[in-house]
Amino acid sequence: MTSGGTESILLAVKTSRDYMRSKKGITKPEMIIPESAHSAYDKAAQYFNIKLWRVPVNKNFVADVKGIKQRINRNTILIVGSAPGFPHGIIDPIEELGELASSYGICLHVDLCLGGFVLPFARKLGYPLPPFDFSVKGVTSISSDVHKYGLAPKGTSIVLYRNREIRKHQFVAVITEWSGGLYVSPTMAGSRPGGLIAGAWAAMMSLGLNGYLENTRQIMEVAKKIQKGIEEIPQLFIVGKPHMTVIAFGSNVLDIFEVNDIMSSKGWHLNALQRPNSLHICVTLQHVTVFEDFLNDLKDSVKIVKENPGPIDGGKAPIYGAAGRCRTEEWCGICWWNSWMALAR
């Protein structure tokens, strides 16, 4: 058990690196991820000295298997898929990625942090979903957050491995080198609060299978209603074909970040995305009784921006739109880095 999805991904990457070093002798590791994959992989690449290849998604906003295959070489240790991806709520083609991983003898991590406590139950409820778990040959590790739809206390996630042979590379053991005695640690943190683990156990025991099924039924139904409502707003479009409870939407005729500012002023705080510029709503139980209010406010916000385009006082539209207007990705990165460093002084 870990402190969250980022740590679960960090551990899966570290474990894959060490496993592939043991298995193939790879000392200059590389990993390949779709551009929709979580930024925790960028952190892992920096932490563990792994070269990172980020491959554009295809026209359906899922991992481009052919593009990933083209990047595989003798130093590749890991490829990645999400179920679903954080930006757009779309499941990557895990079966195809599994075939690729198996054929090249490399690791495949599935980021199930967002979908781990929804997708299995949605499948039981009859929703047609592509395979995403260890039933897929080639999947070597999976991460899933209990503190999201599992409704456990914040700071609880899990990372799973196909077998013990892979998992053992997650552990750090100092047996004879330290004068302080034996030291074995399974996660990034040396000391971990037992209360969070107990809280996760209590949440799962309290809800049980039937509780998670009922929660999933409600939020999946509301997500479909919200998606349908957004599709009926002429100025907006849905990004891809969402599989779950995350719905991303953009506009070809309005500044979607200006819409976001208006929605924020109405009390709706959405995630701002890029490539393409868009917003997303992550539907939870809190939205079940207010989804009609959300759609009405969204229609009104679109109308306001259509009639009076331009940023509002105190709005963040100019900030969110800045990335798309940077001359180069490197220049944009430098600007953001300097901004954060200025705040940290």
UniProtKB/TrEMBL annotation:
Family: Belongs to the group II decarboxylase family. Sphingosine-1-phosphate lyase subfamily.
Membrane topology note: Single-pass membrane protein
Pathway entry: Sphingolipid metabolism; Lipid metabolism; sphingolipid metabolism
GO BP terms in the entry: carboxylic acid metabolic process; sphingolipid catabolic process
Gene Ontology terms, MF aspect: pyridoxal phosphate binding; sphinganine-1-phosphate aldolase activity
UniProt entry keywords in alphabetical sequence: Endoplasmic reticulum, Lipid metabolism, Lyase, Membrane, Pyridoxal phosphate, Sphingolipid metabolism, Transmembrane, Transmembrane helix
N6-(pyridoxal phosphate)lysine found at: 148
Protein's cellular compartments: Endoplasmic reticulum membrane
Requisite cofactors: pyridoxal 5'-phosphate
The protein's Enzyme Commission number: 4.1.2.27
One Pfam match: Pyridoxal_deC
GO CC field: endoplasmic reticulum membrane
Protein name from the UniProt record: Sphingosine-1-phosphate lyase
